[in-house]
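hiii so um. not sure if this is the right channel but i have a protein structure encoded as tokens and i wanna go backwards to a sequence. like what aa goes where. can anyone help
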């Protein structure tokens, strides 16, 4: 810390004091009056010290430090002086504001008017500059101005808060400031003298060339050598005290020794130097003590603030350390968990690899068994269809021959008995031809008859047909009252031998399917074991499970087990049509839903939301990819639409599958198209010949054939009604009402219109086969011909109600009246579901029902 102080001390008139210049007498007096303080802070310079900060050496000089002081001033390093800002000068400003009387006159005027002493100082400075051997130059005005600006800037920017002014300095600075102000106001000679004195510090100290005064480097170098001489003990006590005073002025008073005789010298100097002002040093000391206390308090406050800040930083560092330790613990736990996950995933990877290899080998066997099962069902259906077609062709040939013979006899005017005899004869001939009588022997190169098996098969079929005809004719003769025997509604075209053969082969296939995974390990060979392993993975590490796309791959992994179990599923020929009671469905219905705890959130990361979980689509995907294709193949190749049981099973399967897949799914659409196509083919294959009632009366074979085919038509109507809600209603109504009812069944119904009891009985059977939902909103346009025929029957009953014969005599008349009334009630019950409620109400009112 550096400072500049210009102090004028009141002396007798003979002693002239100029700022920066000291006489031997003055230095001795200052030495006696100096109060020394031992403190780490630099003290304010005492009066009589003049110091410049900075260096005016040229750029080429090699000196390490430059200090500007009067002769005898100890050297100060340049780097140290640059780092220490000058201390504040509070007493100088106060002295300038309140000049003392001594400053306004007396000694102040004497100081300003001492040209002789000032000229001597200037001459000494010039001689010192002339003797400079180190190349020092006199600074110009601009350099001096910049040095002053730098000094003032450093002083204002680096005012030391811990500066403690000396008590003597406050007393000595007041007259100095007053004298300096008076000197600056009187003339410019003082400024010029001060500049000359300043330049004196840059040259050599006056003296001979062989002594200390002749050392090179000017006053600054001399000061440095004096410091070294002080360390070596070469200087006397006066020079040591002078250097100590100058060091205090330069801000380094703490480095010099403080003698025990400082206090008495200070009190003596106060009495001698200031002439009768003994109370001033005490007041100055008290003020200095107050300043010291205030400075100490401010220092304590700063230390307390620093301590609080340090404590806050310590707490923050402790918190950061605790967080870092916790973070290290978390990282260690994560590292351990990552290692566990890695080991687990490696084991799971090996398991999945072995599972895929096993499934790849078993899939071929499962596919072969699946094809065998479908071939068995298709073979059974094909055999039944072929048997039905052959029987229908034989029946058509026999009945057609009988009808033709009866019509020919009736056309010739023969009686009914003659027509019946002609029909029996023609039927026998046709039966013999159908039994293989027309097939002769066809020998091959080995002499074997190729037609022998055909004749044997035809004979067996003819025998079976004759037995069925006898049963049908017996049922027709046993007609009880108005009820007609329901022929053809429960008839099956399958033979018992074919059914037993199918059941035996299918049982063997199912038993073989149970041994497909018998050689696999427990964790590979069952669906439930595989499900448990994959659910364990998902529960432990849901994120890894999701990232591995296991939810999308699960259907392919479970597919071989599901397909193997579907081999035992026989919806058309078995007792259970649905697939929701199978083991694979029960096991996989809740797959991936109930996870074991929340270990996944701890180890494997957060799982995706339930809406994004692909495992929710496991059952729908299995139904779409496995069940529906199998159902489509069964509908196209093994389903008999004329079978009521198979039709109900097929409709139920499609309805269950539609609950898991959207309506526009291609697999579902393919299954629906296959069902509609099979229904259309069955309707097109059905034929009810429009034979007249007279011909059927003469040919019982024709009547039995029409009765059986009418019953088959009713079965088709029920099959079409079973698909209501599964297939579109428009195509179903077109098949049921337009193609089947209007084209095939209605002519058969009209043939019995003359026999009201028979006609009403057939209408009751027809109304029971029709779907009530088709007529809920009114009769559809395609049902108009049917309603017209029912209206004819209703009008006939109304006419009978008004006939006199119906009201005849005795018990016969009473019986006749009761019969139309019963028929009217039965017909009214048919009209209401068909959408003709008005005619039904009128008929009931007419017969008072």
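sure thing!! here u go:
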């Amino acid at each position: 810390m550096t400072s500049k102080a210009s102090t004028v001390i009141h002396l007798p008139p003979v002693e002239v004091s100029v700022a920066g210049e000291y006489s031997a007498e003055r230095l001795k007096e200052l030495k006696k009056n100096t109060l020394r303080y031992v403190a780490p802070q630099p003290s304010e310079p005492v009066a009589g010290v003049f110091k410049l900060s900075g260096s005016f050496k040229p750029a080429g000089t090699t000196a390490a430090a430059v200090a500007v002081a009067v002769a005898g001033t100890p050297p100060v390093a340049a780097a140290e002086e640059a780092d220490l800002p000058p201390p504040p000068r509070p007493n100088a400003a106060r002295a300038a504001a309140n000049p003392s009387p001594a400053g306004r006159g007396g000694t102040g005027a004497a100081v300003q008017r001492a040209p002789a002493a000032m000229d001597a100082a200037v001459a000494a400075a010039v001689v010192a500059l002339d003797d400079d051997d180190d190349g020092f130059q006199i600074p110009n005005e601009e350099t001096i101005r910049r040095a002053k600006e730098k000094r003032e800037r450093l002083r204002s920017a680096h005012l030391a808060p811990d500066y403690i002014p000396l008590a003597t300095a406050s007393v000595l600075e007041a007259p100095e400031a007053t004298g300096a102000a008076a000197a600056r106001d009187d003339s410019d000679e003082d400024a010029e003298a001060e500049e000359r004195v300043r330049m004196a510090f840059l040259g050599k100290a006056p003296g001979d060339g062989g002594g200390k005064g002749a050392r090179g480097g000017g006053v600054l170098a001399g000061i440095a050598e004096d410091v070294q001489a002080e360390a070596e003990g070469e200087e006397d006590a006066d020079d040591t005290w002078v250097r100590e005073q100058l060091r205090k002025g330069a801000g380094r008073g703490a480095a010099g020794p403080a003698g025990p005789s400082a206090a008495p010298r200070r009190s003596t100097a106060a009495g001698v130097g200031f002439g009768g002002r003994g109370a001033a040093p005490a007041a100055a000391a008290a003020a200095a003590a107050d300043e010291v206390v205030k400075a100490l308090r401010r220092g304590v406050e700063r230390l307390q603030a620093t301590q609080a800040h340090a404590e806050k930083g310590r707490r923050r560092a402790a918190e950061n350390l605790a967080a870092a330790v916790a973070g290290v613990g978390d990282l260690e736990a994560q590292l351990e968990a990552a290692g566990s996950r890695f080991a687990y995933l490696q084991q799971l990877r090996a398991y999945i690899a072995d599972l895929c290899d096993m499934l790849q080998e078993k899939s071929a066997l499962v596919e072969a068994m699946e094809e065998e099962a479908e071939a068995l069902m298709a073979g059974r259906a094909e055999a039944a269809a072929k048997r039905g077609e052959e029987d229908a062709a034989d029946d058509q040939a026999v009945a057609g021959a009988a009808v033709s013979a009866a019509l020919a006899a009736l056309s010739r005017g023969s009686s009914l008995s003659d027509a019946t005899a002609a029909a029996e004869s023609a039927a026998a001939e046709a039966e013999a031809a159908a039994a293989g009588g027309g097939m002769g022997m066809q020998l091959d190169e080995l002499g074997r008859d190729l037609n022998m098996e055909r004749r044997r098969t035809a004979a067996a079929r003819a025998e079976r047909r004759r037995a069925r005809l006898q049963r049908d004719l017996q049922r027709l003769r046993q007609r009880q009252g108005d009820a007609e025997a329901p022929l053809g509604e429960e008839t099956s075209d399958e033979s018992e031998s074919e059914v037993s053969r199918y059941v035996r082969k299918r049982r063997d296939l199912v038993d073989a399917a149970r041994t497909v995974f018998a050689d696999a390990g427990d964790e590979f060979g069952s669906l439930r074991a595989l499900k448990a392993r994959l659910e364990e993975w998902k529960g432990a590490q849901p994120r890894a499970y999701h990232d591995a796309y296991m939810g999308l791959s699960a259907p392919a992994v479970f597919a071989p087990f599901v397909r193997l179990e579907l081999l035992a599923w026989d919806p058309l020929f078995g007792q259970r049509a649905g697939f929701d009671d199978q083991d694979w469905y029960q096991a996989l219905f809740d797959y991936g839903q109930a996870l074991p705890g929340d270990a996944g959130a701890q180890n494997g990361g957060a799982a995706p939301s339930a809406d994004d979980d692909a495992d929710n689509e496991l059952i729908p995907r299995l139904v779409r990819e496995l069940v529906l294709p199998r159902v489509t193949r069964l509908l196209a190749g093994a389903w008999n639409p004329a079978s009521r049981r198979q039709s109900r099973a097929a409709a139920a399967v499609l309805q269950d599958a539609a609950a898991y897949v959207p309506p526009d799914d291609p697999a579902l659409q393919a299954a629906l198209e296959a069902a509609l196509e099979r229904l259309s083919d069955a309707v097109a294959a059905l034929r009810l010949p429009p034979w007249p009632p007279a011909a059927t009366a003469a040919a019982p074979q024709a009547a039995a054939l029409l009765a059986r085919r009418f019953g088959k038509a009713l079965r088709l109507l029920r099959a079409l009604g079973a698909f209501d809600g599964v297939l579109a209603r428009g195509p179903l109504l077109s098949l049921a009402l337009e193609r089947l009812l209007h084209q095939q069944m209605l002519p058969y119904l009209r043939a019995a219109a003359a026999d009201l009891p028979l006609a009403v009985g057939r209408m009751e059977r027809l109304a029971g086969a029709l779907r009530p939902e088709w007529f809920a909103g009114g009769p559809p346009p395609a049902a108009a011909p049917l309603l017209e025929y029912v209206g004819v029957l209703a009008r006939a009953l109304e006419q009978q109600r008004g006939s006199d014969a119906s009201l005849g005599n005795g018990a016969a008349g009473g019986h006749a009246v009761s019969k139309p009334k019963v028929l009217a009630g039965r017909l009214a019950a048919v009209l209401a579901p068909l959408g003709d409620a008005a005619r039904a109400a009128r008929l009931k009112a007419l017969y008072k029902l």
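oh and The radius of gyration is 67 Å.
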